[in-house]
Amino acid sequence: MPERAAPTSAELERVFADCFGEEFRTVLEGGGEEPLYVPSSRPDISPHRIVYRADYFASALHEVAHWCLAGAERRTREDYGYWYAPDGRSADQQSEFERVEARPQALEWIFSDACDFAFHLSADNLEGGFAPSETFEAAVHAARTHLLEAGLPARAARFRGALRVAFGAPDR
Length: 172
Known about the structure:
single chain, 9% strand
């Protein structure tokens, strides 16, 4: 049996559109210098936008994870109303980043598995010189275990199922 080519960002955008485009009036699009969620003030005319970094597949999965975890109120705010400090964060800022990023990275890992795509934990702080801490690594692992045992939020479960169908990943 021939090996499947690595999944592409364009394929991922189509899977997202098929799952959520019409119901949630939201599109997934690459090309961003930085990831950003941009809510539409008129979704009947123009959709909400989940912008991911360049054409990076992992960035797209990560941004969809944030979207799947954000409630309806958060999805009305740019970047879901979350605090974000850019690359070059201090140790205190990095600690806060790790506190809020465990669950999204856990869900990104689950989505990565559904695509048979390698997941890599990210401290998202290259200039700050911080690798992911052991505490963060443990928190992401614990959050992943909890999500798999307790059940995924509805949109996350729908997306995971669609990824498995689209990319033929084994159940893990």
